């Protein structure tokens, strides 16, 4: 009987696999795409990332899709879809009254509503593959730049330890894809059918097209991302910096070519945004969606608890201060763009990472899906690990907070013995940990760059060892 | 933020000053590398002493909580209950006791819950009376008799609020216990019902509930009331309902005259009701002059003496232990799950000089219900997380969490120490080559124990109950034993696995290591063995009784009362001394044992009393810690492992 039970279980599993065949088909549709790219690259470059990498990527996609398909079939789906950490009123699949979606998303799911699960899995797969390709390309450029710098003898002699080797960079794209696909946050987000996954896919495509140097596509995807949720607007700064760097246009306010390029990009961006907005208008026949979607994002009327900073603050606040503090809170997302762009104008890809993190921390309805997107970039900065200072503490805090979210939620909402302060305390801690993580990476990045210019072992004037301080 | 290379030398003193102040204004400790290094050095050098100090400080802090000057006095936070004066007039204590005696007589006559009598009596007191029948198949037979199916009936009467819309309700419950217990509680409940019927002040429905089979009946009623079914119980839907329940009291009285009232707060999973409920009880005990206790302990005034302090510590520790046990310590414990503040009030009769009669208790309950009746919203003002060293003092979460934090920080400190050790550059050998193999252990070595321990945890959580039915069907074991034995099997596997993992990872050559580990795994009653080949774990089981049986079991000798057996090939180093495992005494579900097993210790399955020794060989450790821990977990008093019997 035991054996028959086991064989039944096996059969059930096989059945579930056959049922999931459509998901696997999807993978086989996607992977050749990546494969072809790889082959082309190998022809062009001697040190290109080899074809061999496609097999692990396929395997990774298979595993990721299997996990998601299994979770979609399990009883956990309902539970996950209700978690406030995973879905916000803006991204939830099931929405209450007044929680808006952009018209194009509604139109998209008008056709795809029966294939929603496949769509969300596909979005995750696209994000992962796009990030994979983008990072592979970026690494190649980094390596090339490093080679030129070495040939020009620009690095101090004691910095050889800091030079990155192709061996250590080999697995980074795969790690990026893995960090995104197997991140529990992404999986939860996908299983909850949060439209955050779609937004992430659009942003990933934007990153890919930017890194590939396609100005038009970059502008189009950026406008799509902006259309979905306003905040990716701040990504135009790194995109511009990157594209200009690629086309050897100097970032100089007195040069005509600089302004001409900005005008070109702005024209393409605004043009495609205009097309999207008008398309939405023709779909709906009214402009009502503009205030209801973007007003919803900017004026934060829905104070359902989430992992962000807004809800508690605005729930507690006197009504007549609301507008002022709304401005203060919203400006946070956009404000850091300027100093960061100034400081990181040579390193736009790191700026993208910083911006994504800032958005996911300070946006009005953040979910864990936003965090997953910038966390996918962490393997790209593997070489910074020796300069990170609080990574252990911060990862402990992030893990502990992730575990405590559901616990305190239960105590507050179901058991009634805790209150919103408990949950908000954890939210606060979680965000502080994120900020520490990001500033740690920022510090490490700057410090490495500093060492690459001035040498690894800094000396004081009197000859003793000096230390670097972040001010 | 700017990344600046600061060159603070001894010559430029002012600049150094400047730097320090800037750091203080910014991120301070985390960003100043010098101070960080100093702190890290301190933490790594003095790691063990700091951990010890933290531990001591944590324990000392916790013990200090019971010291009265360090605790807060309880106070009523809820305004709706604090400001109003109530005059209690309940007169009919003697009549309530008479009703209780009548109830006892009817209970004895019907041999259980006198449903008809209760319905009639409640109806006569002007309540809307309903009954709910429920049944539940128990997973284990009862200790006294084989009671697989529990059937019972709850009777409840609703007193509709005359003054307000019926949107809120209060509950007073008394369990209908077997024997002579709690008759007085039911009597007093009926007396209070009659008294409340004639009062005009009620703004909330009052539900008077007599539940059968203690917690089972209470759970059935609560599930019926809230339209949920979390336990898979069968119950008939409730015919009548009041509003949403705001608060509930459960009454347990077993004598006509009591000396003191005991307040029980600990609910399911250690959940506590709002502290205001305890405050309310304490306030009325003070007002009416009833002795009140918590954890059965009276309050003492000599907090500055050693005995007074130890008394407070005992009271507090009892509360901690009861919460840690996770089980509800009264019928009120199940209400808490539904966000209803509830407590059990127990009458204690310990033959002291203080005597309290039923009228006084009735007045106390009347006062409490009148105050609860005044509530405008659910109790929420006061604390939900607290410990009580006495009824008049409490320790809030803000005071006891630092103690927990001090204990928890040790984990972080130890981890930090390991982390720093990992981060320090590996020592270079004389050739100048870094020994990478030693310095960076692979992901596998970290992941494997992690995965294994989690798998063991999941197995321990899921399998014993899952395999219970199957085990009972195929093997001569009872339900209780099946659970215990599966747990033992899983646990034994857990003990075996780290050993093998170590061998696997230490790499005695790839193939050899693997083969050795495999052999070792096969030799032990591992997890897979325990699940699919239980006969290997249990000497009393016939291998042929299971389709998955293999010929590994070798009956080397079969003296009376003793089975020695080897599982697979013996592994040197794996065999610890023989253990003596006392299996739990099983009474229910006895089965006829096949053939030769009659001579074996498993005879006790056939109903013989007392624990018998079964010897299991090949347990891969000589420390019985694990199994006794398991026994403690299962709350099974009879399961114990005695290592001193080794070599018998």
From TrEMBL, chain A:
A single BP term in Gene Ontology: GPI anchor biosynthetic process
Keyword presence, Cytoplasm: no
Coiled coil: none
Keyword vocabulary terms for this entry: Endoplasmic reticulum, GPI-anchor biosynthesis, Membrane, Transmembrane, Transmembrane helix
Membrane topology annotation: Multi-pass membrane protein
Regions that span the bilayer: 21-37, 49-71, 202-222, 228-244, 265-287, 293-314, 321-338, 350-378, 390-415, 421-443
Pathway assigned to this chain's UniProt record: Glycolipid biosynthesis; glycosylphosphatidylinositol-anchor biosynthesis
A Pfam family matched in the record: PIG-U
Main location: endoplasmic reticulum
GO cellular component: GPI-anchor transamidase complex
Localisation: Endoplasmic reticulum membrane
UniProt keyword Coiled coil, yes or no: no
Entry similarity comment: Belongs to the PIGU family.
Name of this protein: Phosphatidylinositol glycan anchor biosynthesis class U protein
The organism of origin for this protein: Scophthalmus maximus (Turbot)
UniProtKB/TrEMBL annotation, chain B:
Main location: endoplasmic reticulum
Pathway assigned to this chain's UniProt record: Glycolipid biosynthesis; glycosylphosphatidylinositol-anchor biosynthesis
Keyword vocabulary terms for this entry: Disulfide bond, Endoplasmic reticulum, Glycoprotein, GPI-anchor biosynthesis, Membrane, Transmembrane, Transmembrane helix
Localization of this protein: Endoplasmic reticulum membrane
GO biological process, one term: attachment of GPI anchor to protein
GO cellular component: GPI-anchor transamidase complex
Superkingdom assignment: Eukaryota
Membrane topology: Multi-pass membrane protein
Keyword Transmembrane helix: yes
Chain segments annotated as transmembrane: 46-67, 397-422, 442-463
Subunit-level organization: Heteropentamer. Part of the GPI-anchor transamidase complex, consisting of PIGK, PIGT, PIGS, PIGU and GAA1. Interacts with PIGK.
Function statement: Component of the glycosylphosphatidylinositol-anchor (GPI-anchor) transamidase (GPI-T) complex that catalyzes the formation of the linkage between a proprotein and a GPI-anchor and participates in GPI anchored protein biosynthesis. Binds GPI-anchor.
Name the UniProt record assigns to this protein: GPI-anchor transamidase component GPAA1
Protein species of origin: Scophthalmus maximus (Turbot)
